[in-house]
């Protein structure tokens, strides 16, 4: 599948995403979320997305009685099936009323959990189905860089493959809901 520039939607809005990974405790997360909420109330022209650990999403939502319109929450991961015997996973269906965004295809998920482009594609579809805006992560991995020492045609082809297979999940009318994040 090839995308022509005329088929793409170019967005001029700014999006800043903070992925908290698996670091803060619940109490630290609540303090961080409160601090971000207060400090971001007067910011204009940029949407800020916070991606705390999944276990802290609901407590953060509950601690924010009113959040600034331009501050959103993201899930760090999402599972494509709505329900089933998927121990430890959280579906887009389960997250639909909690987050506005979900990170999919992150390099750590690809490296440590063995996630491939097909699974990323499924995650993208699930997010879009349930009204969650996917943040598609693409980029070369450390092994590629160590082996080549620089960004070459092979690495470019892998990044392009990740991008094309990921956004293939979005129909033309959903392109505006997809954010692409390049992870060098």
UniProtKB/TrEMBL annotation:
Alphabetized UniProt keyword annotations: Cytoplasm, Gluconeogenesis, Glycolysis, Isomerase
EC main group: isomerase
Superkingdom as given in the UniProt entry: Bacteria
InterPro entries linked: Aldolase_TIM, TIM_sf, Triosephosphate_isomerase
Molecular function per GO: triose-phosphate isomerase activity
Catalysis performed (reactions): D-glyceraldehyde 3-phosphate = dihydroxyacetone phosphate
tRNA-binding recorded as keyword: no
Biological process annotations from GO: gluconeogenesis; glyceraldehyde-3-phosphate biosynthetic process; glycerol catabolic process; glycolytic process
GO cellular component entries: cytosol
Keyword Isomerase: yes
Assigned EC number: 5.3.1.1
Localization: Cytoplasm
Pathway: Carbohydrate degradation; glycolysis; D-glyceraldehyde 3-phosphate from glycerone phosphate: step 1/1; Carbohydrate biosynthesis; gluconeogenesis
Record-stated family: Belongs to the triosephosphate isomerase family.
Subunit structure: Homodimer.
The protein's name in its UniProt record: Triosephosphate isomerase
The species this protein was found in: Berkelbacteria bacterium GW2011_GWA2_46_7
């Amino acid at each position: 599948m090839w995308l022509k520039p005329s088929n793409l939607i170019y967005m001029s809005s700014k999006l800043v995403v903070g992925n908290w990974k698996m670091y803060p405790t619940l109490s630290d997360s609540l303090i961080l979320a409160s601090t971000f909420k207060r400090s971001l109330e007067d910011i204009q022209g940029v949407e800020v997305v916070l991606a705390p650990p999944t276990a802290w999403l609901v407590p953060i939502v509950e601690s924010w009685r009113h959040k600034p319109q331009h501050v959103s929450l993201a899930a760090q991961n999402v599972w494509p099936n709505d329900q089933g015997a998927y121990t430890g996973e959280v579906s887009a269906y389960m997250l639909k009323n909690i987050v506005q965004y979900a990170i999919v295809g992150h390099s750590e998920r690809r490296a440590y959990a063995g996630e491939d482009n097909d699974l990323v594609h499924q995650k993208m579809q699930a997010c879009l189905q349930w009204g969650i805006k996917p943040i598609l992560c693409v980029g070369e991995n450390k092994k590629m860089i160590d082996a080549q020492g620089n960004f070459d045609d092979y690495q470019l082809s892998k990044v392009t493959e990740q991008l094309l297979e990921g956004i293939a999940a979005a129909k033309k009318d959903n392109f505006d809901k997809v954010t692409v994040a390049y992870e060098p």
